Amino acid sequence: MNLAKLIRALLSLSIFLLVLNCSSLTTSAKGVNLLPFEDEKSGRNSNAYLSTYEYPSTKMKEDFINEISTYAMKASEKWGIPASAIIGMAALESGYGTTRIAINANNLFGIKVWGYNPKNAWQLKGQPDEDYEPVPVLTDYGQDRKIYDESKRRDNWYRAFSSYKEAVDYLAGNLLLNDRYRFAKNNYEERMKKGWGYERASKEYLFDIADAGYIHLGGEYYRNKVGSIMDERELYQFDERTLKDIGGHWAEQQILFLTEKGWISGYPDGTYKPNQSITRAQAAAIISNFLALTTTNKDISFSDVEKSFWASDSIRLVAQHKIINGIGDGRFSPNTFLTRAQMAQIFYNAGFYSHSANKGVTSFKDVDQNFWASLAIETMKQEGIIAGYTASRFGPNNPTTRAHMAAMIYRIHEKGLDK
């Protein structure tokens, strides 16, 4: 045999082996968990929900998690649904992307579209009857082995997505924000503000949506089932909210800690802007979140704060608790930058100190003993919460940066002064 013939022979053998290998993989995928119309003896209607692979490989699972985590983190940042819960739900409901619904419709969550041949939907033929009215049976091979008239079904259509990303976005930005499930997101945020860890808060989120009807098996079942995947795959790492402009900043760790607690947040573009001056409205939101303030019977409003203003509730709360007061004439001046003196007074009003300083004592040359916030400034310095630019200069009228506010809230918490 000459060289040319040998090469052709080897090439033909390679192609044959490749086709054989692909055929084997295809058979193994389609030959598992058959449906009644595919095999009248071993087919089962309940097999419709299972993976088309007997055992998805470790690599398949890892690849699936790696892809979905990217979409889940972005969705979490945009809509506030815990990323670990999204990933865990996708892994469970789609068998790591190996169920018929996931393969044919990119539907990772079993989201249905009820109706007769609805648009933008894919039909899962052979699944058990889930309709309120009986579906016509063409052939009955026994329990869990029925062949239905699929043309007369409205209970086995699933929303078809163009990609996994579209499925994740629909779940987080549409379904889980509707009137039935929105409360779970609010609960999750409140628990994070109270100091819950990601693991506990995310699992409780799953309980809430399941208990509200997301699945019929109940909250405890879903929390345990999805939670075990979240534990096994350490999915809570994807809940950690990162801010792209604080890397290497002197207050990076303090900002990250407060963000994890839910006491502060960044901007929609993923930044925190640590060196930007903080406004009185932003300070009100941080203090309100930090102390988990609740409303009192005293009704307070300001002429320059409309009810639709993003921080109106926080402003009302801090004013009710006499932590941040108005500036006079019924105004709050929400968009004015917070001065360092005002910051010290806020902390003093909130009681973030163990002992008040003596009146008339001042450590800074630029803070007169008769200055309106001198007692607050000296007390906060005494507690180690704030410091001057130098040993003798405080800069009371200079603006407070967002980084400084985060750092000082962190110190207050570390010292236990918020108790």
Helix coverage percent: 40-55%
Number of helices, counting only DSSP H or I runs of 4 residues or more: 14
Largest sheet, described in full? 2 strands, antiparallel
CATH architecture of the largest domain: Orthogonal Bundle
Overall body shape: elongated
CATH fold group of the largest domain: Lysozyme
- Please report the total strand number as a whole number: 4
Alpha carbon gyration radius:
30 Å
- Low-pLDDT segments, ≥5 res: 10-29
> What is the spatial order of strands in the main beta sheet?
1-4
Strand content: under 5%
The CATH class of the largest domain, by name, is Mainly Alpha
Mean pLDDT: 88
Q: Which H/E pattern describes the elements?
A: HHHHEEEEHHHHHHHHHH
Could you say how many structural domains there are in total? 2
Structural class: mainly alpha
State the distance separating the first and last CA atoms: 89 Å
Overview of the molecule:
The protein starts with a helix and ends in a 5-residue tail after the last helix. 44% of the residues lie in helices and 3% in strands. The chain has helices spanning 3-30, 58-79, 83-94, 100-105, 164-173, 182-193, 198-214, 219-232, 252-261, 280-291, 312-320, 340-349, 374-382, 402-414, and strands spanning 121-123, 137-140, 146-148, 157-159. The chain folds into two domains: 48-239, Orthogonal Bundle (Lysozyme), CATH 1.10.530; 252-414, no CATH class. With 419 residues, the protein is mainly α. The chain has a two-stranded antiparallel ribbon with strand order 1-4. Strands 2-3 form a two-stranded antiparallel ribbon. The longest helix has 28 residues, at 3-30. Helix 2 packs across helix 3, helix 9 packs across helix 14 (402-414) and helix 12 (340-349) crosses helix 13 (374-382). The protein is elongated. A hairpin with a 5-residue loop joins strand 2 and strand 3.
